């Protein structure tokens, strides 16, 4: 960057601080693109890595060999972990970031893809005229605390770099299509971790940042805090932390999940714990993060997808080891099921929406640099819908 351009940016930055009393962080657009692209690649890699193990280990760790080759990433094209959140991207692209509850509901009702649990019940609700936020409330949706929105919220962090208030705002709107309470908080937690991953490299700090975006007294937050504590106690043995989670939290799910600690369980907080175990014990290694989050069991394609998506946002696409990303170019122009996006087209789409989101949040874009207003995470207010 030429000196004149550099000093011009510094001058603009100082003027913004003076005029609005706000503070900003800078993020070159090229860095944003690399990290956002890494986030999508990480999700694709993670869901493909864990797919053969999904629900094959309920109430136990998955101890069989996990086979991987770069070509396996093609499996991600048909995964609901990705195409559902891309349907949200399509709706936002059509209606804008100020999309209304009615627009969200009608867009979701019109989708043709197969759904399960909270997603399916939420969609059936809106087709019956029960719009969000009611469609995801305990009153109308027995699956309200399931994992569904947690695995679809990555998008909102990836288009909100450094802006957890913006991601929470979008999660509070879109997430109530199918979830509430811990099911909603899991999405907010996940999205906030992504927003932090654009600036932070320490995975524990990223996890703690995400915690600040959800109510501290929620079951979800308590579960994640326990994982952090047990990671300190057993820093070299993820299985001991997994066992402590199993003993304390596996028999206390919210919503419809079985109270059998060894049964099928898609509770958001329990599976969120497995995401965090993968991140903390993976310690920045993609191979370890993938393996550990998968071996924790239960929804073991969704959890490595989330964990790898966050880690690969920290790393950036260029730093992802070739053994994991080298299969992506061959499928980059192939569309994901049910949506008009391929890996190649969703990247520029997210860039356009991120630009709008930053400007909408009183940020600035100058000379291919994002000036992003500093936002501190804040939990949502508890509404009367929750606990009905």
Structure explained in plain terms:
There is one protein chain. The protein has 388 residues and is mainly alpha-helical. The chain contains 16 helices and three strands. The chain is globular and about 50 Å long. The relative contact order is 0.19.
Short account of what is shown:
By secondary structure, the chain is mainly alpha-helical. It has helices spanning 3-20, 29-50, 80-95, 101-109, 117-127, 154-158, 164-174, 182-197, 203-211, 219-233, 238-249, 268-282, 286-295, 302-315, 322-325, 343-360, and strands at residues 24-28, 364-366, 369-373. It contains 16 helices and 3 strands.
Poorly predicted ranges (pLDDT <50, ≥5 residues)? Answer: 1-15
Cα gyration radius (Å): 20 Å
Give the helix level as a range of percent: 40-55%
Class computed from helices, strands and strand pairing:
mainly alpha
Query: Roughly what is the average pLDDT, rounded to an integer?
Result: 92
Terminus-to-terminus distance? 56 Å
Our count of helices gives 16
Strand content: under 5%
The coarse overall form would be globular
Oligomer: single chain
In order across it, which strands form the biggest sheet? 1-3-2
Element order, helices and strands? HEHHHHHHHHHHHHHHHEE
**Biggest pleated sheet:** 3 strands, antiparallel
Number of strands: 3
What topology emerges from the helices and strands here?
Elements: H1 3-20, E1 24-28, H2 29-50, H3 80-95, H4 101-109, H5 117-127, H6 154-158, H7 164-174, H8 182-197, H9 203-211, H10 219-233, H11 238-249, H12 268-282, H13 286-295, H14 302-315, H15 322-325, H16 343-360, E2 364-366, E3 369-373
Antiparallel strand pairs: 1-3, 2-3
């Amino acid at each position: 960057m030429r000196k004149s351009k550099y000093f011009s940016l510094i001058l603009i930055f100082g003027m913004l601080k003076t005029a609005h009393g706000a503070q900003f962080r800078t993020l070159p657009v090229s860095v944003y693109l690399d990290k956002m692209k890494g986030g999508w690649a990480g999700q694709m890699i993670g869901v493909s890595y864990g797919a053969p193990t999904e629900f094959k280990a309920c109430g136990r760790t998955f101890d069989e060999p996990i086979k991987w080759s770069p070509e396996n990433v093609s499996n991600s094209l048909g995964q609901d972990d990705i195409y559902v959140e891309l349907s949200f991207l399509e709706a936002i692209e059509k209606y804008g970031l100020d999309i209304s509850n009615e627009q969200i509901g009608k867009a979701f009702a019109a989708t043709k893809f197969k759904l399960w649990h909270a997603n399916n019940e939420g969609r059936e609700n809106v087709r019956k005229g029960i719009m969000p936020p009611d469609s995801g409330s305990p009153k109308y949706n027995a699956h309200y605390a399931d994992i569904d929105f947690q695995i679809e919220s990555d998008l909102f962090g990836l288009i909100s770099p450094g802006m957890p208030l913006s991601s929470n705002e979008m999660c509070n709107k879109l997430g109530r299509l199918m979830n509430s309470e811990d099911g909603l908080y899991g999405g907010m937690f996940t999205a906030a971790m992504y927003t932090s991953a654009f600036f932070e490299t320490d995975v524990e700090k990223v996890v703690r940042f995400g915690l600040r975006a959800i109510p501290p007294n929620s079951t979800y937050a308590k579960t994640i805090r326990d994982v952090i504590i047990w990671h300190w106690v057993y820093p070299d043995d993820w299985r001991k932390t997994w066992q402590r989670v199993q003993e304390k939290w596996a028999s206390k799910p919210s919503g419809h999940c079985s109270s059998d600690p060894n049964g099928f369980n898609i509770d958001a907080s329990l599976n969120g714990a497995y995401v965090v175990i993968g991140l903390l014990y993976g310690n920045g290694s993609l191979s370890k993060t993938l393996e550990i989050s998968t071996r924790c069991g239960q929804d073991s394609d969704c959890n490595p997808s989330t964990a790898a998506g966050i880690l690969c946002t920290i790393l950036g696409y260029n730093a992802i080891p070739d053994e994991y990303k080298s299969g992506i170019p061959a499928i980059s122009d192939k569309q994901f099921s049910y949506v008009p996006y391929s890996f190649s087209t969703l990247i520029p789409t997210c860039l356009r929406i991120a630009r709008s989101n930053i400007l909408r949040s009183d940020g600035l874009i100058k000379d291919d640099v994002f000036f992003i207003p500093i936002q501190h995470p804040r939990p949502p207010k508890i509404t009367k819908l929750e606990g009905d």
